[in-house]
């Protein structure tokens, strides 16, 4: 739970800053919080995950463009770009390098048949693609206000992620293998 809240730190501060100021102040706060997050990990000697580096790069580029050009379009595109980037990395690793990154990330915690790892990878790719499309709809369809988009970004997409992870955990629970069956499939990979 502590790591989950730490990872949400920039988003929580973005939302709070928006409520007290505006989108541009909130963007600057999110940029500073993301930078502070990575710096904190570095100072503490902890591993900085690829997702932190990617998130920092994307917020700096899209947040910087938002502030420099004083246009909310860039910050509204940021979640979509981040989600689609994750989808491309998952897909690219599988197609170009033959690596299933979901297995690389979670393989030490659970043991699953190879086909299930592939399905898990695909579900995450589809989830990230759908989240990106949904963000664009809320941000640019004209059906929602800026304030509604900020709330959706902070709570809606976070809620969707939590529901997705819970549903995925239930599904994975049906496929986890006993320890003695694990060696058979690992020899194939």
Automatic annotation (TrEMBL):
Q: What cellular-component terms does GO give this entry?
A: plasma membrane
- Keywords on this record? Cell inner membrane, Cell membrane, Membrane, Transmembrane, Transmembrane helix
One Pfam entry name: IspA
Task: Tell me the InterPro entries matching this sequence.
Answer: YciB
Q: Where are the transmembrane segments?
A: 20-41, 53-69, 81-101, 122-140, 152-172
Q: How does it sit in the membrane?
A: Multi-pass membrane protein
Predominant location of this chain?
A: membrane
Its subcellular locations are:
Cell inner membrane
- Per the record, the domain of life is Bacteria
Report the sequence similarity comment from the record.
Answer: Belongs to the YciB family.
Give a short account of what the protein does: Plays a role in cell envelope biogenesis, maintenance of cell envelope integrity and membrane homeostasis.
Its recorded name reads Inner membrane-spanning protein YciB
Query: According to the entry, what is the taxonomic lineage of the organism?
Result: Bacteria, Pseudomonadati, Pseudomonadota, Betaproteobacteria, Burkholderiales
Gene label: ispA
């Amino acid at each position: 739970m502590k790591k989950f809240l730490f990872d949400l730190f920039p988003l929580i501060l973005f939302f709070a800053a928006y409520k007290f100021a505006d989108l541009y102040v909130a963007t600057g706060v999110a940029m500073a919080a993301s930078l502070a997050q990575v710096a904190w990990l570095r100072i503490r000697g902890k591993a900085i995950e690829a997702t932190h580096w990617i998130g920092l790069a994307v917020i700096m580029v899209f947040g910087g463009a938002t502030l420099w050009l004083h246009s909310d379009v860039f910050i509204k595109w940021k979640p979509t770009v981040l989600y689609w980037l994750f989808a491309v990395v998952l897909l690219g690793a599988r197609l170009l390098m033959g690596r299933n990154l979901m297995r690389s990330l979670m393989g030490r915690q659970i043991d699953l048949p190879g086909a299930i790892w592939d399905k898990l990878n695909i579900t995450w790719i589809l989830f990230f693609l759908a989240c990106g499309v949904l963000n664009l709809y809320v941000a640019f369809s004209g059906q929602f206000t800026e304030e509604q988009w900020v709330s959706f970004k902070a709570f809606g997409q976070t809620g969707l992620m939590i529901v997705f992870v819970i549903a995925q955990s239930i599904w994975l629970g049906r496929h986890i293998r006993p320890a003695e069956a694990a060696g058979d499939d690992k020899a194939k990979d």
